[in-house]
Amino acid sequence: GAGVSQSPSNKVTEKGKDVELRCDPISGHTALYWYRQRLGQGLEFLIYFQGNSAPDKSGLPSDRFSAERTGESVSTLTIQRTQQEDSAVYLCASSLLRDYEQYFGPGTRLTVT
Amino acid sequence: GIQVEQSPPDLILQEGANSTLRCNFSDSVNNLQWFHQNPWGQLINLFYIPSGTKQNGRLSATTVATERYSLLYISSSQTTDSGVYFCAVERYGNKLVFGAGTILRVKS
Prior knowledge:
The complex is a heterodimer of chains A (113) and B (108).
Chain A: E1 5-7, E2 10-13, E3 19-24, E4 31-37, E5 43-50, E6 53-56, E7 65-69, E8 75-79, E9 88-95, E10 103-104, E11 108-112
Parallel strand pairs in A: 2-11
Antiparallel strand pairs in A: 1-3, 3-8, 4-5, 4-9, 5-6, 7-8, 9-10, 9-11
Chain B: E1 4-7, E2 10-14, E3 19-25, E4 31-37, E5 43-48, E6 52-56, E7 59-64, E8 69-74, E9 83-90, E10 96-98, E11 102-107
Parallel strand pairs in B: 2-11
Antiparallel strand pairs in B: 1-3, 3-8, 4-5, 4-9, 6-7, 7-8, 9-10, 9-11
Protein backbone atom coordinates (compact mmCIF):
# COMPACT_ATOMS: atom_id res chain seq x y z
CA GLY A 1 0.00 0.00 0.00
CA ALA A 2 0.91 3.67 -0.11
CA GLY A 3 1.62 3.91 3.59
CA VAL A 4 1.13 2.26 6.95
CA SER A 5 -2.52 2.02 7.91
CA GLN A 6 -4.06 1.35 11.31
CA SER A 7 -7.54 0.56 12.51
CA PRO A 8 -9.60 1.61 14.26
CA SER A 9 -8.55 5.27 14.37
CA ASN A 10 -10.35 5.68 17.70
CA LYS A 11 -11.46 3.14 20.28
CA VAL A 12 -13.34 3.78 23.49
CA THR A 13 -13.67 0.81 25.80
CA GLU A 14 -14.72 0.07 29.33
CA LYS A 15 -12.17 -0.91 31.93
CA GLY A 16 -11.71 -4.68 32.00
CA LYS A 17 -12.61 -5.28 28.35
CA ASP A 18 -10.18 -6.66 25.75
CA VAL A 19 -9.23 -4.64 22.67
CA GLU A 20 -7.52 -5.52 19.42
CA LEU A 21 -5.64 -2.98 17.33
CA ARG A 22 -4.61 -3.62 13.75
CA CYS A 23 -1.67 -2.49 11.65
CA ASP A 24 -1.12 -2.92 7.89
CA PRO A 25 2.51 -2.18 7.05
CA ILE A 26 3.89 -0.88 3.76
CA SER A 27 3.98 -3.72 1.25
CA GLY A 28 7.39 -5.41 1.19
CA HIS A 29 8.50 -4.13 4.58
CA THR A 30 9.84 -6.99 6.64
CA ALA A 31 10.18 -5.14 9.95
CA LEU A 32 7.20 -3.92 11.96
CA TYR A 33 7.15 -2.01 15.25
CA TRP A 34 4.54 -0.99 17.82
CA TYR A 35 4.91 2.11 19.99
CA ARG A 36 2.75 3.83 22.59
CA GLN A 37 2.44 7.57 23.08
CA ARG A 38 0.80 8.90 26.22
CA LEU A 39 -0.67 12.39 26.14
CA GLY A 40 2.03 15.05 25.85
CA GLN A 41 4.86 12.55 25.91
CA GLY A 42 7.31 10.92 23.54
CA LEU A 43 7.00 7.46 22.03
CA GLU A 44 7.68 4.27 23.98
CA PHE A 45 8.76 1.15 22.11
CA LEU A 46 6.57 -1.89 22.71
CA ILE A 47 7.55 -4.72 20.34
CA TYR A 48 9.41 -5.43 17.09
CA PHE A 49 8.64 -8.07 14.45
CA GLN A 50 10.99 -9.40 11.80
CA GLY A 51 8.70 -11.31 9.50
CA ASN A 52 6.29 -13.09 11.83
CA SER A 53 8.73 -13.59 14.68
CA ALA A 54 9.16 -11.13 17.54
CA PRO A 55 12.81 -11.05 18.60
CA ASP A 56 12.28 -8.02 20.83
CA LYS A 57 9.28 -7.82 23.15
CA SER A 58 11.13 -5.87 25.79
CA GLY A 59 8.77 -2.90 25.75
CA LEU A 60 5.52 -4.72 26.46
CA PRO A 61 4.43 -3.22 29.80
CA SER A 62 2.69 -6.30 31.22
CA ASP A 63 1.44 -9.76 30.31
CA ARG A 64 -1.91 -8.20 29.43
CA PHE A 65 -0.25 -7.00 26.22
CA SER A 66 0.44 -9.36 23.32
CA ALA A 67 0.98 -9.05 19.60
CA GLU A 68 1.18 -11.25 16.56
CA ARG A 69 1.97 -10.86 12.91
CA THR A 70 0.91 -12.91 9.92
CA GLY A 71 3.92 -13.47 7.67
CA GLU A 72 5.21 -10.09 6.52
CA SER A 73 1.76 -8.56 6.61
CA VAL A 74 -0.84 -7.51 9.13
CA SER A 75 -0.10 -7.27 12.83
CA THR A 76 -2.52 -7.11 15.73
CA LEU A 77 -1.81 -5.75 19.19
CA THR A 78 -4.13 -7.13 21.86
CA ILE A 79 -4.65 -5.62 25.28
CA GLN A 80 -6.55 -7.81 27.72
CA ARG A 81 -8.47 -6.55 30.77
CA THR A 82 -7.81 -2.92 29.84
CA GLN A 83 -6.94 -0.42 32.56
CA GLN A 84 -7.26 3.35 32.52
CA GLU A 85 -3.47 3.72 32.33
CA ASP A 86 -3.61 1.94 28.96
CA SER A 87 -5.24 5.05 27.48
CA ALA A 88 -2.84 6.35 24.84
CA VAL A 89 -2.21 6.53 21.12
CA TYR A 90 -0.80 3.27 19.78
CA LEU A 91 1.41 3.76 16.74
CA CYS A 92 2.66 1.20 14.30
CA ALA A 93 5.69 1.61 12.03
CA SER A 94 7.34 -0.48 9.36
CA SER A 95 10.71 -0.50 7.64
CA LEU A 96 12.19 -2.36 4.70
CA LEU A 97 14.69 -4.08 6.97
CA ARG A 98 15.77 -3.71 10.57
CA ASP A 99 17.80 -0.52 11.14
CA TYR A 100 16.33 1.12 8.04
CA GLU A 101 14.11 4.20 8.01
CA GLN A 102 10.81 3.65 9.84
CA TYR A 103 7.49 4.95 8.53
CA PHE A 104 4.60 5.48 10.90
CA GLY A 105 0.87 4.94 10.63
CA PRO A 106 -1.71 7.45 11.88
CA GLY A 107 -2.21 5.63 15.17
CA THR A 108 -5.14 4.31 17.16
CA ARG A 109 -6.34 6.52 20.00
CA LEU A 110 -7.44 4.23 22.83
CA THR A 111 -9.53 5.59 25.67
CA VAL A 112 -10.36 3.34 28.62
CA THR A 113 -13.27 4.62 30.70
CA GLY B 1 20.34 2.30 27.35
CA ILE B 2 20.99 5.16 24.98
CA GLN B 3 19.83 8.62 26.07
CA VAL B 4 18.41 11.23 23.68
CA GLU B 5 18.11 14.86 24.68
CA GLN B 6 16.40 17.52 22.59
CA SER B 7 16.59 21.25 22.97
CA PRO B 8 14.92 23.60 23.33
CA PRO B 9 11.80 21.96 24.81
CA ASP B 10 9.60 24.83 23.57
CA LEU B 11 10.07 27.42 20.86
CA ILE B 12 7.85 30.26 19.70
CA LEU B 13 8.68 31.91 16.38
CA GLN B 14 7.27 34.70 14.31
CA GLU B 15 6.41 33.59 10.80
CA GLY B 16 9.42 34.00 8.55
CA ALA B 17 12.02 33.45 11.27
CA ASN B 18 14.69 30.74 11.23
CA SER B 19 15.39 28.20 13.96
CA THR B 20 17.75 25.41 14.95
CA LEU B 21 16.71 22.37 16.94
CA ARG B 22 19.29 20.15 18.56
CA CYS B 23 19.45 16.46 19.40
CA ASN B 24 22.22 15.00 21.57
CA PHE B 25 22.65 11.28 22.03
CA SER B 26 24.78 9.33 24.43
CA ASP B 27 26.25 6.54 22.27
CA SER B 28 27.13 5.70 18.67
CA VAL B 29 24.09 5.01 16.48
CA ASN B 30 23.39 3.54 13.07
CA ASN B 31 20.01 5.18 12.57
CA LEU B 32 18.86 8.72 13.31
CA GLN B 33 15.55 10.13 12.16
CA TRP B 34 13.81 13.48 12.53
CA PHE B 35 10.02 13.54 12.61
CA HIS B 36 7.37 16.24 12.68
CA GLN B 37 4.22 15.35 14.59
CA ASN B 38 1.44 17.54 13.29
CA PRO B 39 -1.49 18.74 15.42
CA TRP B 40 -3.50 15.69 14.30
CA GLY B 41 -0.87 13.36 15.72
CA GLN B 42 0.57 12.06 12.47
CA LEU B 43 4.32 11.46 12.52
CA ILE B 44 5.85 12.71 9.31
CA ASN B 45 9.33 11.61 8.29
CA LEU B 46 11.62 14.58 7.75
CA PHE B 47 15.08 13.06 7.51
CA TYR B 48 16.85 9.74 7.83
CA ILE B 49 20.31 11.02 8.67
CA PRO B 50 22.71 8.83 10.68
CA SER B 51 25.52 11.06 9.41
CA GLY B 52 26.16 13.97 7.06
CA THR B 53 23.92 16.75 5.80
CA LYS B 54 20.65 16.69 3.90
CA GLN B 55 18.31 19.37 2.65
CA ASN B 56 14.65 19.27 1.71
CA GLY B 57 13.16 22.62 0.79
CA ARG B 58 13.21 24.95 3.79
CA LEU B 59 14.44 22.19 6.07
CA SER B 60 17.93 20.82 6.42
CA ALA B 61 19.64 18.54 8.90
CA THR B 62 23.19 17.76 9.90
CA THR B 63 24.40 14.87 12.01
CA VAL B 64 27.92 14.81 13.41
CA ALA B 65 28.09 11.18 14.47
CA THR B 66 31.56 11.43 16.03
CA GLU B 67 30.33 14.17 18.37
CA ARG B 68 26.93 12.55 18.93
CA TYR B 69 24.59 15.33 17.92
CA SER B 70 22.22 16.30 15.15
CA LEU B 71 20.76 19.65 14.18
CA LEU B 72 17.52 20.41 12.35
CA TYR B 73 17.33 23.79 10.63
CA ILE B 74 14.01 25.39 9.73
CA SER B 75 14.25 28.48 7.55
CA SER B 76 11.52 31.01 6.75
CA SER B 77 9.15 29.30 9.16
CA GLN B 78 5.44 29.03 8.35
CA THR B 79 2.44 28.44 10.61
CA THR B 80 2.14 24.95 9.13
CA ASP B 81 5.53 24.13 10.67
CA SER B 82 3.90 24.17 14.11
CA GLY B 83 3.85 20.91 16.00
CA VAL B 84 6.30 18.69 17.82
CA TYR B 85 9.66 17.75 16.36
CA PHE B 86 11.12 14.44 17.49
CA CYS B 87 14.61 13.08 17.09
CA ALA B 88 14.92 9.28 17.34
CA VAL B 89 18.01 7.09 17.29
CA GLU B 90 18.69 3.40 16.99
CA ARG B 91 21.81 1.61 18.10
CA TYR B 92 22.73 -1.47 16.10
CA GLY B 93 19.93 -3.98 16.34
CA ASN B 94 18.15 -2.23 19.16
CA LYS B 95 14.94 -0.25 19.35
CA LEU B 96 14.35 3.28 18.07
CA VAL B 97 14.61 5.60 21.09
CA PHE B 98 12.82 8.93 20.94
CA GLY B 99 13.72 12.20 22.55
CA ALA B 100 11.09 14.17 24.46
CA GLY B 101 10.55 16.49 21.49
CA THR B 102 10.61 20.22 20.78
CA ILE B 103 7.23 21.95 20.69
CA LEU B 104 7.30 24.59 17.97
CA ARG B 105 4.67 27.29 17.63
CA VAL B 106 4.86 29.64 14.66
CA LYS B 107 2.76 32.79 14.95
CA SER B 108 1.44 34.73 11.97
